[in-house]
Specification:
Length: 623
Amino acid sequence: MQQPATETGRPVAAPNQRDTSHPAMDLADLPAADHSHWPARLLLTAPLAGALALWAYAMVRTDTSRLGDFGLVGALPVAFWIALALLAVGFWVCVRDPLRANGWSLAYTVGLIVLERATQALVYPTPLYSWAWKHDAVIEHLLTAGGLQRGDQLGDMAVYDQWPGFFAAQAALVRLTGVENAAMYMAWWPLVSSLLLLAPLLLIYRTFTQDRRLIWTAVWLFYVANWVGQDYFSPQSLALALYLGVIAVVLRRGERPARGHRSRQVLWTALLIPLIIAIVISHQLTPVMLVASLGVLCLTRRYRDWTLLITLLLVFLAWNLTASLPFLREAVPEMVSSFGDVSGNLETGYGSTPTGTGPVIVSWVSRILSASVLLLAAVGVLRGRVLRHRARPLLLLAAVPLLMLVANDYGSEMIFRVLLFMLPGACFFAAAALLPAVRPLAAEPGGHGVPQPAVGLRFAVLPGVVLLALTAAFVPSYSGKDRLSYFPPQEVALVQQVFDRAPQGSLVVAAHRNYPLAYASYWNVQHYWFLDDEKSHVEEIMKDPAGTLARDMAAVEPPATAYFLLTQGQIANSEMNGMLTGEQLRSIEKSVAASPLFERVGRNSAGVIYELKRTDSSPGRTS
């Protein structure tokens, strides 16, 4: 007799019969086991509690005052590494049991996120990343001016006027909480943005399996492999969470409806429209990635409903043909010229080449980490025929970001963004490579047949060692370059001196933009970073530093003033990325210090400030 069908067209399984056509894996209906007796609780609690205690101790003992070429890695005490190892081993013991309640895996995963993303917020007294400080300046402008200015007024900063969603939301949050500015909390944003990814990841993975081991191992691998640093205080960090949220809903509720059930599809589309709008008005690349992802899902038989994709395209085009049109007019010719140039889009370019023992080793560790996860994913795909069939949409979502390499280099960052969007799907199959297949065994006397995992040395030890190695590799990959990302309080105070004294229309000249508050008062103060200039001009500066810089700065009209600023953040970035050495930058500073054209107006342990003197004989000026 034919079985009745669900509203999605699948046959309903008879009682006590497994529905093998459903995209759930073998453990779909197994209840959580009872682990209430004290030995089991102790086995699960001790590693987690011990790891958190050791981590807290390590935070007190970490000294970040003198970071070396290995960044935070060289400053962390042994207690931190023991804590991380305990956490990984405890998680592996916890996740081995397919009947263990999800709460234990959740606790270990949240513990991992805290160790990964809260460490920097605790050991550094100031927020990391010059780009985070830049975003704080945009929010400050919103709060003080009441709105952003148009493109012809702000130059390259106009891009934030045309995608203001994240900044408007943060400005509202600053007003709502009453804090002085976003810098008061942006050091904690990596932790917050990472936690926001947890729920959509779980929803996505639960769409294709109910095997608790596979779900939580995939989540763990995602957080271990996500070292690319896009979780900082930025529009893309929030846009990624919204992107995964849309994908999660589409995978779970967006299947092609049967006749007579279109109303449910319309409802879910309507609920997703606010998320789509937020993505489109907040970030340039994420909407393009969402279009590609929804498009590839629509090509499958299971998700062949075009309503949401068409809605996204309409919102995307409406925004890009109105609010962001000024930016696109200038950017489109360059996009067209780089389209199809895959090798060029993969090049890092000048100023992005790791230089020195520490940066080179850190770069290779991060590459090996990513390559290992992708290799495991390939093994999981090849070995798991059933899983490959059931999770084919996830496999497509992992592959489609590669198309972005054809489109553009995205400021030499496209390879990192491609990796980021590949991870949710890749980590699912990588987790499958670390886990054995579930085998149904004969029923126990008086009970029911229960699928049991194949337990042995290969499952218990070797994959556990791999998981531990990948977890440890995250730390240097993520924080191994903190020497150029961290700005001590002295550097923040020094830069603040410039903007406290600079009249409107002033010019700040620096070697590189890698310093805190680099964009403070960007609507009133101009900036020039000579390492961004043509290499020939950099060579000219090296031949006659004071004279060349004075000519570059002389066009500033009174009462505005021109300043030369050199900080340790600029030196670190220049040295570690293959530009000028620290000695070369210090020779420039010595030339400026010895020149009668400049006057020193500020100095501390983190850097120095010089002001161009106002004289009738200044280079480039006439009486």
